[in-house]
Write a structure and sequence with these properties.
Largest sheet: 8 strands, mixed
Radius of gyration: 29 Å
Structural class: alpha+beta
Strand content: 15-25%
Helix content: 25-40%
Bound molecules: adenosine-5'-diphosphate, magnesium ion
CATH topology of the largest domain: Ribosomal Protein S8, Chain: A, domain 1
């Protein structure tokens, strides 16, 4: 028998490795932008075509490469950024693994042009499937241009796996924003299919935030700034009134690298406690700078997760810095200025880092704020520094059954709620529940409607009931029913952020079948000509903005199709909300329409629309 093991040819090995680094066009955007930043560029241009599927090109005015380096840069594990193992703990550049260009060259056609200032001519290299096709001298300005063409042209399975252009474009814009946000002093532009989407001149972080996230934040940013010997935190957080329903505008950077951290996010959220509704998310752009030896950015190939040497102390610093910022701008009138003694007993605070660092740390300002009485930080909950997993309660049980079982558990057994999840019109052998015609309806607390029925009475939740009604009405549209649309008196223009514009564009066809008449109207601006009859005239713009927020809120729900998410977002937005007083006629229509539904007793997400109180239970409650 002959031996079987062979070494993989380079191009196949590179293709496999590339799978980790280049997952979609936006991965190349991130890598190429970061390389340009690492090369010291002050001006970086990103060009994409066909949502990056046919072209991702980054042009910078950075250091450029020598002819040899240009050729070497495409080798796997080729990097100019580390020389020895100790360098790994001193990383100040964005890249260091030397994998990006090799990966891109393994899965696409790449064209590189580069010239250093000291060289007379530049270098042009064409490479495809890890193989150099052409290399020649070229006249070029100082800097580098790298174009990735037809990504995955040689890996059809992965090419087919790419999402629609609007989705891929959204990923690209996300990556662009993350890099541009981290380096406000560098000029960036993004041009898609020849149209310039972003043009950002170098400036302050505040200017960059407003450019990227929208002018609505202009007067709404609170400065966060804490310096210690261990770490610095700086950036901005939004005033509480800017909190949104989605966590879109939340950015954490550690040593200028965008990271996702549920743990640190929780630290910020807890600083806002009681200032914003619990289901809303404050905007923040926060930078944490610390000794690279204190972090391990190497845990994830695309480097969005991060490990800290001491997570707890960073949590406490972040929370404290944000609270301090909010307090200084007197945004928290009810601040409790007492320091919770429990935090001082925590190891992370009482015994900071290592013994040899202790002396310097104890002198540092933020550490002192932890140990001083009457400082401006509010640290209230004893449990706040427990292991972070404890912060996340089990997914909230909101299903009808769970609510009922909870309610029944609490009840004394003397009465029960309607427990059938099926249609009450057909449920079992029990007496059918029917509305009593022309019986008076009462609205309570501008939220509930009390409606007598033959079997007792029901307590309807006006918003949840309306959600059910609208859901069935809109769902019928997909089965061919047409939707009543009202034309706006005047066409309404809706300017959106670039991110939201890409999203709305994606949703337009479906929205238009639901009775909206919306068209693209210039760059990132849409015009509403008409809207479904359920939208109050004059509220169309708000309706669209809220609907987009809600849609993004649903975006994590992988189990829903795009259309289902849209449907639910529109339904949520259009449904009458608690707090709205209803006329008798409106209550009557709502109640009747609810009972005409196929599934009247639960909302699309499984909450009850009403609770039924049956006559015989009521009798029993009164001990009769
Ligand atoms: P890494 O960034 O991890 O070092 P890459 O594969 O992204 O690995 O790049 C390999 C090398 O090519 C870099 O270390 C750098 O020396 C060089 N390089 C890449 N892009 C540029 C650029 N835009 N300008 C100058 N040098 C570059
Ligand atoms: Mg790199």
């Amino acid at each position: 028998m002959s031996d079987k093991i062979q070494l993989l040819p380079d191009n196949i090995a590179n293709q496999i490795a590339a799978g980790e680094v280049i997952q979609r066009p936006s991965s190349a955007v991130k890598e190429l932008l970061e390389n340009a930043v690492d090369a010291g560029a002050t001006e970086i241009r990103l060009l994409v075509a066909d949502a990056g599927k046919s072209l991702v090109q980054v042009i910078d005015n950075g250091s450029g490469m020598s002819e040899t380096d240009a050729r070497m840069s495409f080798e796997r594990h080729a990097t100019s950024k580390i020389n020895n193992i100790d360098d790994l703990f001193r990383i100040r550049t964005m890249g260091f693994r030397g994998e990006a260009l090799a990966s891109i060259a393994a899965v696409a056609q790449v064209e590189l042009k580069t010239r250093r200032q000291e060289d007379e001519t530049g270098t042009y290299i064409e490479i495809e499937n890890s193989m150099v096709k052409k290399q020649e001298p070229v006249a070029y300005t100082q800097g580098t241009s790298i174009a990735m063409k037809n990504v995955f042209f040689n890996v059809p399975a992965r090419r087919n796996f790419l999402k629609t252009n609007p989705v891929e474009m959204r990923h690209i814009v996300d990556e662009f924003i993350r890099v541009a946000m981290a380096f406000p002093e560098i000029s960036f532009s993004l041009t898609a299919n020849g149209q310039e989407m972003f043009h950002l001149t170098g400036g302050t972080l505040k200017q960059r935030i407003v450019h990227l996230l929208g002018a609505s934040y202009t007067a709404k940013l609170v400065t966060v700034q804490e310096k210690t010997d261990y770490l610095n935190i700086y950036g901005f957080t939004g005033k509480p009134d800017t909190a949104k329903k989605t966590r879109g505008d939340q950015y954490f950077f550690v040593n200028n690298r965008f990271i996702r951290s549920a743990y640190l996010n929780h630290a910020v959220m807890s600083a806002y406690q009681q200032m914003i509704p619990s289901d809303s998310f404050p905007m923040y752009v926060l930078f944490i700078d610390l000794d690279p030896a204190q972090v391990d950015i190497n845990v994830h190939p695309t480097k969005q997760e991060i490990k800290f040497e001491d997570e707890k102390i960073i949590y406490a610093f972040v929370q404290s810095a944000v609270k301090h910022a909010l307090a200084q701008f007197s945004i928290t009138p009810t601040l409790n200025f007492d320091l919770d003694p429990s935090i001082q007993q925590l190891d992370a605070v009482a015994k900071p880092f290592t013994e040899d660092k202790k002396a310097t740390t104890e002198a540092s300002s933020l550490y002192n704020t932890f140990s001083q009485k009457n400082q401006a930080h509010l640290i209230e909950s004893k449990s706040e520094l427990k292991h972070w997993k404890d912060f996340y309660p089990e997914p909230k049980q909101t299903g009808f059954k769970s609510i009922l079982s909870a309610a029944i558990e609490q009840s004394t057994g003397k009465f029960e709620y309607e427990t059938s999840v099926s249609n009450p019109q057909t449920a079992g052998s029990e007496q059918k529940m029917q509305l009593i015609e022309d019986a008076p309806l009462i609205q309570l607390h501008n939220t509930y409607i009390v409606a007598p029925v033959n079997t007792g009475f029901i307590l309807i939740h006006q918003q949840l009931a309306h959600e059910r009604i609208l859901y069935e009405r809109y769902a019928a549209v997909s089965k061919g029913k047409s939707m009543a649309s009202q034309r706006s008196l005047f066409p309404i223009t809706v300017p959106l952020s670039a991110q939201d514009a890409v999203l709305l564009q994606e949703l337009l066809p479906d929205l238009n079948t639901l009775g909206y008449e919306i068209e693209l109207f210039g760059k990132d601006t849409f015009v509403i000509q008409g809207s479904p009859a359920d939208v109050e005239q004059g509220n169309e713009k708000l309706a669209i903005e809220q609907m987009l927020e809600q849609y993004k809120h649903f975006s994590n729900e992988v189990k829903f199709s795009k259309r289902e998410k849209l449907l639910r977002s529109v339904v949520w937005q259009h449904a009458i909300k608690p707090g709205k007083a209803l006329a008798l006629k409106e209550m009557k229509t709502l109640t009747e329409e609810l009972f005409a539904c196929d599934q009247p007793n639960i909302t699309p997400s499984g909450n009850p629309t009403y609770i039924a109180f049956k006559k015989d239970y009521m009798e029993r409650m009164f001990g009769r």
